C-alpha cells in the first residue's frame, strides 16, 4: 500500500509537468501568432526578400568571384528582378484587358448552363439566384483576406509600395553581405557554430529546391492545360494559362481556383461535354502527372503530408496573405528539417555509432551562398 502511493504521486507529478508544458507551448504559439499578425507588414517583405536572396545568392557568388564588386552585382540582381516583375505585370494586364469582355461573356454563359443544370436537379430559380448572390458577396471578402490581406483604397496601394521598397532594400543587403548576415543569424541560434551553419545551408537548399520545383511544375501544368484548351478550341487561352501558372504557387487552393476557372470557360464556350473534357485535363495535370513529377523535383526533404500542407497553407494565408500562402510550405519544411538535424546531432552525441541522416544536398552545410539546387 505504501509503495503504490509514491508511484501514484510520481504519476501525478508527471501529468502535472506535462500539463504545464502543454500550456506553455500553447501560450508560446499564441504569442508567436499574435506577433506575426501584428508585424506582418515588416515580416512579409523580410521573408520574401530572404527567399529571393537565397535564390539569387549562387549567381551573385559566381559573378562576384570574377572580381566584380559584390554591391554592384547585388544592385544588378535587384534591377533584373524588378524588370522581370514589371514585364510579367504588363503582360498580365494587357492579356486581361484585351480579353476581359470575352471572359465576362463566356462566364455569363457558364452561369446560364449551371442554372439549367440546377433546374434539372429540381432547384427553384429563387434558390439558384440566392446561391449566386451569396457567392458574389463572399468572393471579394475571400479574395481580399486570402490574397492580399490589405485594406482597400489608397492605403492598400501605399502599403504595397512600401512593402516592395522595403523588400528590395532588404534583398540588396542580404545579397551584398550574405556571409555577414549568415554569421550574425548563426550566432543568435542556441546551437554550436558548425551546426548552425549547416542548418542555414540546408534551409537555403530547401528554399531553392522548392521555388525551382514549383516553377517547373507550374510550367508543366500550364503547357498541359493550355494544350487541352487549344485542342478543345476554347477562347481566352492566354488567361487560362496565366491563371494555371500563377495558381501553381498556391498549394491546393491555387490549383482548385485555376481549374475551376478553366472548366467554367469550357462550360460557357462549349457546353457540358467540353467542360467535362476540360475537367479531365485539369485533374490529369494537377493530379496524376504532378504527383509523378513532384518526387523528382522536390526530393525526399520536401515530402510533407498533404494534410499538413493544406493546414499550414490556410493558416499562413489567414495570418500573412499571399506571401504567407506561397512561403508556408518551405518554412514548414525548414522547421521539420531543423528538427531532423537536431535529432541527428543528439543521436551522434549519444553514441559514436548512431546513424546520421543525410543532408538535403551534398555541401548543404558549406554556407547559404554556395549550395546549388538540383532537380
TrEMBL record:
Protein's UniProt keywords contain Membrane: yes
Broad class of the protein's primary localization: membrane
Transmembrane domains' residue ranges: 12-36, 42-60, 72-97, 154-175, 210-243, 249-268, 275-298, 304-336
Chain intervals for the UniProt region annotation (Disordered): 350-375
InterPro entries (UniProt xref): AI-2E-like (IPR002549)
Pfam families named in the record: AI-2E_transport
A Gene Ontology term for the protein's cellular component: plasma membrane
Keyword Cell cycle in record: no
Membrane topology: Multi-pass membrane protein
Basic and acidic residues composition-biased segments: 350-359
Localisation: Cell membrane
Record key words, sorted: Cell membrane, Membrane, Transmembrane, Transmembrane helix, Transport
Protein family per UniProt: Belongs to the autoinducer-2 exporter (AI-2E) (TC 2.A.86) family.
PANTHER family: PERMEASE PERM-RELATED (PTHR21716:SF53), TRANSMEMBRANE PROTEIN (PTHR21716)
Descriptive protein name: AI-2E family transporter
Species of the source: Planobispora siamensis
